[in-house]
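Dear Dr. K.,

Following up on our conversation at the group meeting, I've run the structure prediction for ABC transporter ATP-binding protein from Streptomyces tsukubensis. I'm pasting the input sequence below exactly as I used it, so you can double-check it against your construct before we proceed with anything downstream. Let me know if the numbering doesn't match what you have in your notebook.
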Amino acid sequence: MGDTRLSRRSVLARAVTGQKRDLGIAGAVGAAHQAGEALVPVLIGLVIDRGVAEGDRTGLLIGLAVLAAVYTALSFGFRYGARAGERAAENAAHTLRTDLTARVLAPEGGADTGKLPGELTNIATEDAKRVGGALMALVIGFWALTGLVVSAVVLLKISLLLGLVVLVGTPLLLAAGHLLSKPLEARSAAEQERAAHASGVAADLVAGLRVLKGIGAEPAAVDRYRHTSRASLTATLSAARAQAAQNGMVLALTGVFIALVALVGGRLAARGDITLGELVSAAGLALFLIGPLSLFSYVNAELAQARASAARIASVLDAPGAVTPGGSAPAEPVRGGVRLRGLSYGSLDGFELDLPPGAFTGIVATDPADAEALLGALARRRDPEHGSAELDGVPFPGLDPDALRAAVLVAPHEADLFAGTLAANVAAAVPRAGADTGPALAASAADEVVRTLPRGAETEISEGGRSLSGGQRQRVALARALAADPPVLVLHDPVNAVDSVTETRIATGVRALRRGRTTVIVTTSPALLAAADAVVLVERGRVTATAPHAELVLTSPAYREAVLS
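The predicted structure tokens came back this morning:
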């Protein structure tokens, strides 16, 4: 629990960083506004004493003119201070969103462990907004405190007893409000957790909508989301009840406090201890105090929700990396030799593999789990339990993860496309701005896709590339990987959604384009495997054979079953 509080405070401190100027402006202007608001009843009391009780008409007119000027200044001051406070809140939320995005995309990974994409989106939007809103709440709390202090000073000047009532009662009221906010904080955390989970489930279902329809699982999906949504609604209603209870209790306590101030002031006026104008000032201040005290209720509720959201943001920002970042970059030029020695990673056990620099290697895994584990090890999604992986003789852990992934690009077959033009998708990973992507489009047969689109490569495609067929989407994703032109390129089933003629063309194109660059294709495509210099057969987590495709077809029943059946 102590670590959570420290992390939560660090998130709140991070939100304040960079916003001090706007917060200072908002605090100063807002405090001046509240002080002016508190002095309005005093001015009214003076006008009554001099202009009404003493019959001074000139004084009355001057007093009314001063009040008009004060109200005009208060109107402009409030707007200026509120604008600075809102600017600080929005900028802080934006900074947190940027930090969260950077952490999720950080090369060491680990931030998304145990979280659905929709849940991370909810944290980066709603939770960041709530923490940013805490800055405005703090500013408003400072305004309210200023109003209370000025009111207490004025009341002390009018009557020592009235001033003491405010000075003693206000801290007690604030303490009660803080205690009443504790249930809201806990329920707000549960509310955000449930809402984030519901968002994650919704995004997950939408992403898999075609699959769900294909297998007729829509009713089960609807039931799943209905259950999740109801749980989220229950948590939201619970938080709303807690907030309503807190607001009601604080409002009741505030009412009792204001009534006490008015009662004391009335008794003093009845005894003649204060003038009629001072009584009006005291009554006006008592009514004015409702505003600052009500603001404290709002501030407590906002801070309670912000603390819960800050803890959720901290869970992402402070998440341990999936790998330990190294500090070195691969030696230039990268030759592209990859070695796996005694590797234990997922289903791989004692795995040994040599990928010579510049070689075109095919890998066939009889168990899909072995293929996934090998891709994970080469992408360094996490470090292996035992053994090592090396690039040009340098162990992966000694290399900077970002530099390693620039040198060893692992392109999964289910890679998504982004909303935007086809050209922008292919050029997304191009190392040099303005580089020609034509060879990559031709090698992947994606140039055929370009010719079928109404605006060619400048045609807009939808999120995830859903406006394209599966085969078109796969070819564009392959073109993107080829256009990146890394020293080592690892492809996973890049042609399993295309016809055999296109498959053969892609095999020829990829081999020609990648000549002299290390290329690994994890696949069961006969056309791609026939184009490879050598093929590695993986069974039960280990390499069992290495030979050209034609030789393995003749000598290995397991290979024939995996590739030709």
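Two things stood out to me. The longest strand covers residues 338-345. The chain has three domains: 1-159+292-322, 160-273, 338-564.

Best regards,
J.T.
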